[in-house]
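Q: I'm building a small set of examples for a reading group on sequence design. Run inverse folding on the following structure and report the sequence directly after it, with nothing in between.
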């Protein structure tokens, strides 16, 4: 991941490990699928994956096809 943070347990909520992925340029679908496999193999509770606005729909399609849309959230970013 480009960043990761740990949210401590609070009340009945267990500790969470969240990864942040930032795509500054488009990746090939095969590469995205490989990264998804790596995240599945790790102990992350969730992943927030930021992509350029024009890539959001395609990335969401990949997440649905990979059956990780509950685990990996795709968001748009307008960065530099």
């Amino acid at each position: 991941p480009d960043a990761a943070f740990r949210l401590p347990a609070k009340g009945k909520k267990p500790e969470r490990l969240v990864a942040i992925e930032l795509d500054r340029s488009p990746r090939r679908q095969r590469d995205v699928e490989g990264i998804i496999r790596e995240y599945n193999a790790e102990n992350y509770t969730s992943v927030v994956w930021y992509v350029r606005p024009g890539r959001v729909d395609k990335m969401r399609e990949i997440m649905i096809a990979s059956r990780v849309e509950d685990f990996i959230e795709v968001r748009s970013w307008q960065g530099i």
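The helical segments are 29-41, 56-65.
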